[in-house]
Amino acid sequence: MTAAIAFAPIIYFSLYRSMAKRLPISYFYYSALLLILAFSYTTLAHENQISGWLMMGSLISLAIAFRSSMRLRGFSYTILILAAASVAMYYPQYFLHIGSLKFSRLILPFLQIIMFGMGTELSIKDFKEILRMPRGIFVGVICHYTIMPTIGFILANIFKFPNEIAAGIILVGCSPSGLASNVMSYLAKANLALSISITTISTLLAPLLTPLLMKLIAGQLVTIHFWTMFWDITKIVIIPIAAGLLFHYVVRGRLQWLDKAMPLISMIGIGLIIVVITAAGRDSLMKVGLLLIVAIFIQNIAGYALGYCSAHLLRLPEKDCRTIALEVGMQNAGLASGIALTMGKLATIGLAPAIFGPVMNISGSSLATWWHGKSSNGKREFTPL
After folding, report:
1. So where are the chain's domains?
2. Suppose 233 and one of 44, 207, 218, 283 were both cysteines; which one would form an S-S bond, judging by CB atoms 3.0 to 4.6 Å apart?
3. Among 278-282, 315-319, 360-364, which range has the highest average pLDDT?
4. Which helix H or strand E contains 306, and what residues bound it?
5. What pLDDT is attached to residue 377?
């Protein structure tokens, strides 16, 4: 029973996808509307035992409808994550374990697989790009590790969250760039090579800078063991990336099925992390959920704005300004969740990263779509995504 409910969002989505091949796409928009109306009714009637399923159904219907639109399909995966998270909020007991297997034990292996996948996509050529554009990379990395931690510290103090919740916001700010920023840079017609270089460098610096910044900024909120966190991040990030880089030169291309499977595994891993943290931290979310979402949204948008303005003030090209905006605003929320788990604070410190992931994907997709239709000289362009 537990297994069936835990994997219900995947089963439900698969059934809907098979129906999408035979039904007009408008069916799924109408279905989403009807289900959200039913959700509203059952919520007002305090029929919470079925409200979660109705919310999930509505979001899945919307996600499938969005898949048919070139401009909206980028939001489909994020909506599916929200669908799974909504079920986890209503029925958290089914997303914590199956028998003796705790889902939280899968978070670190999935993160290591995601980092391994990043390593398989790297090559010596990528590191040569770093030498070709040092100024842009230097500005991007410095902005990333100064702007976001500062914003996190300011917001944590303004909103007066409990110490561990506040530390989670700061942890998001002290984490390296998220891999999604590379995709968004491509869609935004930014400097993709610069984006990959900044993500790579900020990620490789994370074992040193993340615990150092956490010790300096969040040390008064929670206990930070520098060397313990240094080693934990090294195990999650550096070792898997190194293994992936070796794989790139030794095995890549010989196992084509694995090359194709890596993006899917990464998506499943990110989804699992968000759902498990949502279930584990449900009680804390019920207390500070709305305010925490507001704080995370401000942190994300401020990162974009200050990253762009900093690059613009330093007279970098428009494409580089867009890149640095995305690199500063989009964090590796999955890694932050993994760090929270190793600290034994998944249900509190892990909440901010769990919320930041979907928020940055929605905002990043929207910003990239807007920039996609606007050339680097400021003129509008009308090209399909």
Report:
1. 2-95, 103-372
2. 207
3. 315-319
4. helix 282-313
5. 58
The helix/strand/coil state of 103 is helix
Tokens of 8: 């219900």
CA 212 – CA 206 distance, rounded (Å): 9
CA distance 182 to 356: 17
Q: Would residue 253 be called left, alpha or beta, if left means φ above 0 and alpha means ψ between -120 and 50 degrees? A: left
Q: What is the predicted pLDDT for the residue at 11? A: 53
Residue 336, C-beta contacts closer than 8 angstroms, at least 6 positions apart = 168, 171, 172, 175, 350, 352, 353, 356
Region 103-372: CATH code: 1.20.1530.20
Beta carbons of 210 and 228 less than 8 angstroms apart = no
Percent helix, strand, coil in the chain (nearest 5)? Answer: 80, 0, 20
Q: What contacts 24+ positions apart, CB below 8 Å, involve 287-292?
A: 288/161, 288/162, 288/165, 291/159, 291/161, 292/159, 292/161, 292/165, 292/169, 292/351, 292/352, 292/355
Query: Is residue 335 a contact partner of residue 356, using CB atoms and an 8 Å limit?
Result: no
Verdict on whether the full-model pTM lies above 0.85:
no
Helix ranges restricted to H, 314-350: 318-329, 333-342
206 SS3 class: helix
Q: Which of 104, 352, 359, 355 is nearest to 222 (CA)?
A: 352
With bands split at pLDDT 50, 70 and 90, how would you rate the model's confidence at 45?
confident
H helix and E strand count, the chain: 18, 2
Tokens 């489909």 belong to: 76
Q: What angle (nearest 5°) sits at the alpha carbon of residue 362, between those of residues 206 and 18?
A: 115
CB 229 within 8 A of CB 342: yes
Look up residue 371 and give its two tokens: 């920039």
What single DSSP character describes residue 218? Answer: S
Amino acid at 274: I
Q: How far is CA 127 from CA 99, 102, 193, 290, 309, in A?
A: 45, 39, 10, 42, 27
Residue showing tokens 């991040």: 233
DSSP string, 224-287: --HHHHHHHHIIIIIHHHHHHHHHHHHTTTT-HHHHHHHHHHHHHHHHHHHHHHHHHTHHHHHH
Tell me which of 82-96, 137-151, 202-216, 331-345 is least confident. 82-96
